[in-house]
Design brief:
By secondary structure, this protein is of the alpha+beta class. It contains eight helices and ten strands.
Length: about 300
């Protein structure tokens, strides 16, 4: 019943232009490419991943050979869920809805897919984000960060002033600042000889984080060239969780003979991405990269006291 009232009527109102007959609705719905794509995608995913139980399967699609047939099955589903005339022998029975649970949930999945896509596009559109930023900053919710870069070449280094619409100095904020600073260094062509980031809270003049390359980056070649072949890069990091700081590590496969400054920056980005994919809530307190089982890090990242808690 909920699927009919909240989901099918959404599709009918959105796409059927006031037409209520089965043939009319099938024709109009079949003309909407976005809806057709959504139906096929969700049908394939539910079938492939076997996410439905035996009594919630998609058997009502068994005789469907194309998208139009699936749409017709969905339109006819309204009778089983709610819409039959009392004169019909197969009229809707509120006491026999379980057998249509799988079909009803599929209808929910399709509508949610459409609504969420449209909502996210609206919420995260450039105009919406800019308006959110303006309102947040005007209300005093802003953190300004000054990030200084250090280069090996005797050339001007970037000094970035970044603003974020938040009042919380978090480890995630620091990692995002690192990513933005790396992108700016790439744009200006200075990442290949940049060996240090220093970030401070502009108004409080307190350290947020530091990234520092080891002495190898200060040599004439500016490359790491170990005596043994590089088999993997080991990432060791400390995280804050439930009041405790714990140590973790993972490895990144590598077959390079040597590593440049740019290579190490890329490995640092890969490490942050890997940690975020595993658990987006991870609060990284410090991070170091090592070659194979070496004990001397090639680059280190650490948070200042302001960003720890």
């Amino acid at each position: 019943m909920d699927a009919y009232n909240n989901m099918f009527l959404f599709l009918e109102t959105r796409y059927c232009d006031g037409k209520t007959k089965t043939t009319q609705q099938v024709e109009l719905l079949s003309q909407n490419l976005e809806l057709c794509s959504c139906i096929e995608r969700n049908a394939a995913e539910l079938t492939k991943m076997n996410q439905v139980r035996k009594n919630e399967n998609l058997s009502f699609f068994d005789t469907c050979t194309n998208t139009r047939d699936k749409i017709r099955a969905l339109v006819l589903l309204r009778g089983n869920l709610r819409h039959h005339s009392l004169k019909s022998a197969n009229r809707w029975d509120p006491n026999q809805q379980d057998k249509h649970k799988g079909a009803a949930r599929f209808l929910v999945t399709v509508v949610h897919d459409i609504v969420i896509k449209e909502s996210l596009e609206e919420i995260y559109s450039p105009a919406s984000l800019e308006e959110f930023r303006k309102q947040s900053i005007s209300s005093g919710n802003e953190i300004s960060i000054k990030l200084t870069t250090h280069r090996m070449n005797n050339e001007p280094s970037l000094e970035l002033n970044m603003s974020y619409p938040t009042t919380v100095v978090s480890s995630l904020l620091c990692v995002n600042t690192v990513r933005h600073a790396m992108e700016e260094c790439k744009k200006t062509g200075q990442l290949a000889d940049t060996v240090r980031f220093e970030a401070v809270h502009s108004s409080r003049d307190l350290e947020l984080f530091t990234i520092e390359f080891d002495v190898w980056a200060y040599t004439a070649k500016r490359e790491v060239e170990p005596s043994k072949p590089i088999e993997f890069i080991r990432c060791r990091f400390e995280r804050f969780r439930t009041g405790l700081i714990t140590s973790h590590q993972f490895s990144i496969p590598s077959r390079a003979n040597r590593l440049s400054i740019t290579d190490v920056w890329n490995l640092l980005a890969i490490s942050f991405d890997h940690i975020e994919r595993k658990d987006p809530t991870t609060r990284v307190m410090s991070l170091k990269l090592f070659i194979n089982d070496g004990r001397k890090s090639i680059v280190s990242y650490r948070l200042g006291a302001l960003a720890r808690f």
